Structures are given as structure tokens and as C-alpha cells.
Amino acid sequence: MNKQSRAPIFETLLAHAKRKVVSFHTPGHKNGKGIDPKLKQFTGKAAYFLDVTVFPEVDSLHDPVGPIKKAQTLIAEAYGVEHSFLLINGSTIGNQAMLMSACSPGDSIIVSRNAHKSILSGIILAGVWPIWIQPKVDQNLDILFDPSPEQIETALIQFPEAKAVFVTSPTYNGVTADLVKISEVVHRYGKVLLVDEAHGPHLKFHEDLPISAVEAGADLCVQSTHKILSALSQGSVLHYNSQAVDLNRVKKVVSMLQTTSPNYLILASIDLARRQAVQSAERIFERVIRIAEDGRKRINQTKHFFSFTRKEIQARGYDLDVTKLTVNVTKTGFSGKEIDAILSKEYNIQVDAADLFNFIAILGIGSDKADVDRLVEALEDIETKYHGQSKNWILQIPSLSTEMVMNPREVFLSKKTKRVPISKAAGHISAQTLTPYPPGIPVLIPGERISKEICDYLLDLSEKALRVSGQETDTLRTVKVVC
Ligand SMILES: Cc1ncc(COP(=O)(O)O)c(C=O)c1O
């Protein structure tokens, strides 16, 4: 039998469940007997037999020697890497682990400001200095692009001390960077390439999708198996394929960040997601790509909605995972968030994210044509029923390639902080993170010198009474700075 047709964790759990073993181990529900009856009525009882804890038969995530080790080896083989780690707290800890493995406290790393919040928390945990690159704003598509290979090379020349480069690809919008060129540049300068590929666990399995991070040469990359493939939420994988980073260090860091009571259902679901991907992803994604492209075409035939195409993204030097539909709503006179709310309340459709300009509909291994038809028909209906007021919103961000004066970790741990009015904050060192949505990227980071431009941007948000993530107070009038 082909090795990839096995699912060692799932097979072991099933064999264990069939034995109906008397449980004197955690979890306390004891094979489901103690689960709330209403929950059990809804879910059925079988799954709780798989919710076990660490004992030799089912193996240990922290020191795998049995089925978990075999499952990790099968994942590594499937993706063509030296080692893969099962993660049960999402790509969030994968990003943190990459930073803590590749860097030592005091090292610096080149990273786009357009990074997920787990990268910022990883920077704080690892005690590294971020060197920020400004994301590119596209006011035609109303999205941000991660830095180009040229921007990365310029940063590498300007900051030769940088230890590594951290790239997000694909972005939330499904836009992938030119990772082949980026990998060539980063390695030519003797640095380490880390990639947040949370949205790309499927890329490797279909030739009409952009190249994946490890195929392009990333040293380490994280994928949210749960986002697009069939793992349960929180199920992710960290791939290691590096000459420069010590594998034992990665093992120690990953172990430090994961719970000692892993959910075996999540582990089994990653194991099975890998098997399913190897056996069927090419065929399934052939269909998912087709229905996404058909949906995009029909959306682009409406008067008020549009979804950018792969061709438009390639013309800008990037590539697109077409299974993500970013739908621009600016012509409707409503915000993306308002259309999101209408879709949810009136049409029973829930999209993944929305901002002022767009909403994002993510397709996955379980998507079908009927789902996409529902979305397109809802948009066609919305056009006829809802008429908003046209707005003059423009996607813009202040210059965020700021001067880092103190290490973010040092500021995060320091108690020497005070609050000052935003209008007087310029020149101070920020002691907090502030992330307005949109654009969903932090405009203040602990340790950076606050510029006049950032103050003006925050004042504008404060006047519009827009809520900003991390503001710590009911209204945004002051910011926390270092004393
Ligand atoms: C680009 C990106 N990176 C990382 C993450 C974190 O992934 P997870 O939810 O698997 O922890 C997300 C989550 O949305 C994301 O969009």
C-alpha cells in the first residue's frame, strides 16, 4: 500500500476507540460520558472517544516516536521538506516559532508592516528588532501589496545586519509575492527566508495555483491546514527546509509554545487532510478553481461589484490564488462591512472578512458550485434592492518605515509608560500597538518613534470616532508612550 494512503494518527485513535478502554486519564468527560447532553445530542457521541490525552499508544506531540512521528514524516514527504511539525494552535504559533527559532534576542529582521498580528507578538516574544518595509497601496483595487523583491533587496543593502526576511504570501486577498526571486535575493545575501503561508496549504497540489513557499526556497514556512484544506480549526503545519536554522532549536521552540494537552481530533484531522490532499486535491481544486473563476466572471458582469483577476495581479508583478474572491463594493455606495452584514442577515451567507472597500469570500476544499451561485445571485439581488450614497473613501496609510528606538519586547515589559494626547505624541516613543481596520495593519508599534504623519492619521481616526484595535480606552484621544 502506498505510504501516503495511511493516516497513522487517525488509524491509531480508531483502534483505541474500538477497545472501549476504561479512562482514568484526562479529559474529564471520559469518552464523552460527561459531555453536556445538549452538545452530545447535536454532535453525536462517537467523536468523544477520539478526544484522548498523551499515553504511549497514541504518542506524544512533544516527543513523538509513534503515530505522530509517522504522520509528521508523511506530511514532510508530501510537501517535499526535511521536517514538518503538527501545530494545534494555528499558524499563530507557527509565526512566533519561526521568529524565535531563526533569531536570537537583539537580532533584526526585515518584515512588511502588512503582517499578521502573530508576527508582531512573535517579534515581542523573540526580542528582535523589526525593520519595517512599507506595503504598497493600490488605490484601483483598494488593497495592500507586500513588498517586491526589489524593495527587499534595497532593505538588505541598507540593513546588512538583518538576520532574516519575513514575507506573507499569500496575503488575505490570495495575492502571492514573487517568492522565487525573493528567495534568490535573500539567500544571495546569506539571510534566512521565513514565509507566513497561512493561506496557502493547497498551493502545492494544483499547477494552476501560484508556486508554494517551500518550492520557491523558503527556509521555514507555516500553513493553516484548517483555512483551505480539511483540518479542524487550529490545525496548522510548520515546514522546515533549511541549511541555516538549527532543526533542534525549532523543535524546542515549537514544544515550548504548544499545549501539553493537544487535541487529538485536531491532530487526526491534519493527518487526514494531508492524505486527502495527496490523493484528491488536484482533482478537487480543478473544480474549486473552475467554480471560483466562473463566480468571478459573473461578479464582474454586475454593475456594482468587481473581483480582480489573476491577469490584473500578474500585471503588477504578483500572482493570485484564484480560489479567493476579493469583491470590491465601492460602486454600491456601501462599505464592505455593510455588504457583509446584508449578506449575513438577508441571504444567510457569511464571508470571511470585510473592510471599507472589499469583502473576501474564501473557497476551500469543501466549496461547491451551489455556494458560489448563492453568493453571485445574492450580489445580483442586492444591486437591485439596495442603493447607497457614493463615498469618497480612499485607501491610504501613513509612512510606516519608522525609526525603531527601543526593542518592542523591552517596551512591552517596561512599566515606565504614560499617556499623552495624540496631538502631542509626535517625537515620543510608542508603548502600544494600534491597528485601525481598515487597513488592518498596525500604525503604532511599541518602541518606534511616533511621526507627525502618524499623529495626523490617528487624529483623523479619532475625529471620525472609528474604533481602533488596541486603543485601551473608550475613545481614542491619547496614546501610551515611554516616559
Ligand atoms: C496571513 C495570516 N497569517 C497568520 C494567521 C494566523 O493563523 P491561525 O488562525 O491559523 O492562527 C492568519 C489568520 O487569519 C492570517 O490571515
Task: Characterise this structure.
The chain is α+β, with helices and mostly antiparallel strands. Helices cover 37% and strands 15% of the residues. Among the domains are: 282-385, Aspartate Aminotransferase, domain 1, CATH 3.90.1150; 408-482, Ornithine Decarboxylase, Chain A, domain 4, CATH 3.90.100.10. Helix 6 (149-158) runs parallel beside helix 7 (179-188). The longest helix is centred in the middle third of the chain and has 36 residues, at 264-299. The radius of gyration is 23 Å and the shape is globular. Bound molecules: pyridoxal-5'-phosphate. Pyridoxal-5'-phosphate binds next to helix 4. The site of pyridoxal-5'-phosphate has 13 residues, from helix 4.
* Unreliable sequence segments: none
- Anisotropy-based shape: globular
Helix count equals: 16
Roughly how many Å apart are the termini? 66 Å
How big is the Rg? 23 Å
Query: How many DSSP E strands?
Result: 19
| CATH architecture label of the domain at 282-385 | Alpha-Beta Complex
The main pleated sheet reads as: 7 strands, mixed
CATH topology of the domain at 282-385: Aspartate Aminotransferase, domain 1
Present as ligands are:
pyridoxal-5'-phosphate
Compute the average pLDDT: 95
Fraction in helix: 25-40%
Return the CATH class of the domain at 282-385.
Alpha Beta
- Beta percentage is 5-15%
Tell me the structural class. Answer: alpha+beta
Question: What's the arrangement of strands in the largest beta sheet?
Answer: 1-10-9-8-6-2-3
